[in-house]
Design brief:
The chain is an alpha/beta fold. The protein is built from 18 helices and 27 strands. Strand 16 and strand 17 form a beta hairpin.
């Protein structure tokens, strides 16, 4: 039977609890103390003893404006993030939002993750009121800053725009980033625009290379946990990049070991965070399971053994265990395949013979290529402003000796036709239609234009096939614009644009894999249009006539 506590007794209990929490020191350690004193997990009081790499993150969070944490599964970060939300509202007196993919997800998360932590400490239990139906926590009386008024911690389902834009906030926490609606996530930024605090924390297992969580981490300081071996002195060991060489069975146990001398490593005692890009304003951390001793190696190695049998399982293992995003078979062009087609040569300013393609939008992305043996070698990759598209593309076509140039007919059809009138024997207008590769023509106001049409999926599959290890039908320059090609926008567009997602085909009545849309894939599309130009020439069907071997698909 529940006992009624007299009002006077409640006041006494509350005053004791308030004196206890008032001992929290302001500054870098206040969140870490909040975690250690007031957060309980299913394994007892929260501790950094077997989560050592998370300590620096917890210490730095209060001072950072934007942080991206690319993580493995079950490494303790969600618990820290829940505590961070409660800390912001309860100690700092700030309105915070915790974003999840859907409202149903948010309500379940409130029940299973927030409520147990709130129930685990009497002060939290008394000071936090939850409203499950709307995903709301009302927090009052924890810290000095929050005693004057009640503040709220909102659990948001970002499947709807209304949850992304309706309430002003001081801080935003984005969980499961790769599953969130990316457009609504961007809209949610406006919630903190008027706040002097304006903090953002993004954290998730990354599933899609070059997109979502991975894109945010790649644009950050990219902190990794470097381990030094005290036995042989080998330093700068990043375990997730060395796996499986960094794990060995010694006696009856799996151990994390030095890649040099193979002696066991204490990854917490001999590791530290190092930023690969320390000058960047946005902070980023990568937290794989391998650097968290709480995650047992027996579990990791059992998953590794199963994953070794199937590509789809290996993709999940790399994403959730190593914190290395991998889309598996949904990723048509991988980073490894892209790196394998790089060669040392300089992009061209002029040429005697090329084919070209353009992806048209507010900015026009352009790719020109010649042939090296039987491989399409890209010699010029750049952008052109849409308002100068005709003049600048015309100049490039002339300077690079372009024999066939394929350009999107839409959305700037007038400009595309103007370019075709300047180069009637070169320019072909491209359409995506549900049909096989087809060369044709269209007439507008008495002028006839060359056209090419192709099913979008077939077209992009044909281009992606040129990157396979057994074909390698393309070449890109190892360095572009003074930087490594793999760090360029061209590489990013190929990785993002070559991913497939399960999409409902209403005609077939089932889910089918299709290339992503509404994604930064412009250089992928421009390169594919250059491939089409080569196909047209190789078959003698393009306006430039015969010229090269028919090795690139189509027709």
């Amino acid at each position: 039977m529940k006992k009624n506590v007299p009002r006077q007794g409640k006041s006494l209990v509350r005053s004791v609890l308030l004196r206890e929490i008032s001992r929290l020191r302001p500054g870098h350690d206040s969140l870490t103390e909040f975690l250690a004193r007031y957060v309980t997990t299913d394994k007892g009081r929260y501790s950094f003893d077997r989560h050592g790499p998370l300590l620096e993150i917890a210490r730095r969070l209060p001072e950072l404006r934007e942080v991206w944490i690319l993580k493995g599964a079950q490494v303790g970060l969600s618990t820290m993030a829940v505590a961070w939300g409660l800390y912001l509202a309860g100690i700092k007196g700030l309105q915070a939002g915790y974003a999840l993919p859907t409202k149903i997800f948010a309500r379940r998360f409130l029940k299973t993750r927030f409520q147990p932590i709130v129930a685990g400490h009497p002060l939290l239990k008394e000071s936090v009121q939850t409203t499950i139906d709307v995903g709301l926590l009302a927090v009052s009386g924890l810290g000095v800053a929050s005693r004057a008024a009640q503040v709220y911690l909102y659990l948001l389902g970002l499947e709807n725009l209304s949850d992304a834009i309706s309430i002003p906030l001081d801080a935003l926490l984005f969980d499961e980033v790769d599953v969130l609606n990316q457009e609504n996530m961007a809209w949610a930024d406006d919630r903190i625009a008027a706040s002097a605090n304006g903090q953002k924390l993004y954290f998730s297992v990354g599933m899609n290379p070059g997109l979502g969580m991975d894109a945010g981490y790649q644009a950050s300081s990219q902190r990794v946990w470097l381990v030094r071996c005290p036995a042989c002195g080998k330093d700068d060991q990043v375990l997730e990049e060395l796996f499986p060489a960094c794990v060995r069975r010694i006696g009856e146990r799996w151990e994390r070991v030095c890649a040099g001398c193979h002696r066991p490593l204490d990854v917490q005692a001999t590791g530290r965070w190092v930023a690969r890009y320390p000058d960047r304003e946005v902070e980023g951390y990568r937290v794989p399971q391998l650097i968290i001793p709480q995650v047992g190696l027996d579990y990791i190695m059992r998953r590794w053994e199963r994953a070794s049998r199937r590509r789809s399982l290996m993709a999940k293992f790399r994403s959730s265990t190593l914190a290395l995003p991998d889309a598996g078979e949904r990723q048509r062009i991988t980073a490894e395949q892209l790196a394998a087609v790089l060669e040392d040569y300089h992009p061209a300013q002029t040429a005697e013979w090329t084919v070209g393609g353009a992806d048209v939008g507010d900015t026009c992305h352009v790719a020109f290529a010649d042939l090296a043996g039987e491989r399409l070698r890209f010699v010029r990759l750049e952008t052109v402003p849409a308002d100068r598209m005709v003049e600048e593309l015309s100049a490039l076509i002339t300077a690079l000796g372009c024999r066939c140039f394929v350009i999107d007919a839409k959305p700037f059809r007038t400009e595309a036709r103007r370019l075709a009138r300047r180069h009637p024997e070169v320019v072909v207008l491209q359409y995506f239609k549900e049909q096989t590769f087809n060369m044709g023509s269209e007439t507008h106001e008495g002028v006839t234009y060359h056209t090419v049409s192709e099913d979008r999926e077939d077209s992009l599959d044909a281009y992606c096939d040129l990157f396979t290890m057994d074909h390698r039908g393309v070449i890109f320059p190892r360095y572009l614009g003074g930087r490594d090609f793999m760090d360029s926008e061209v590489a990013a567009h190929h990785l993002k644009g070559s991913q497939k997602v399960e999409t409902l085909d209403r005609r077939l009545g089932k889910m089918v894999p299709r290339f992503r849309k509404v994604v930064d894939n412009h250089y992928l599309m421009a390169g594919n249009n250059a491939r089409k130009a080569l196909v047209l020439l190789s078959q003698g069907r393009g306006p430039g006539g015969l010229g090269v071997l028919p090795v690139f698909g189509g027709l």
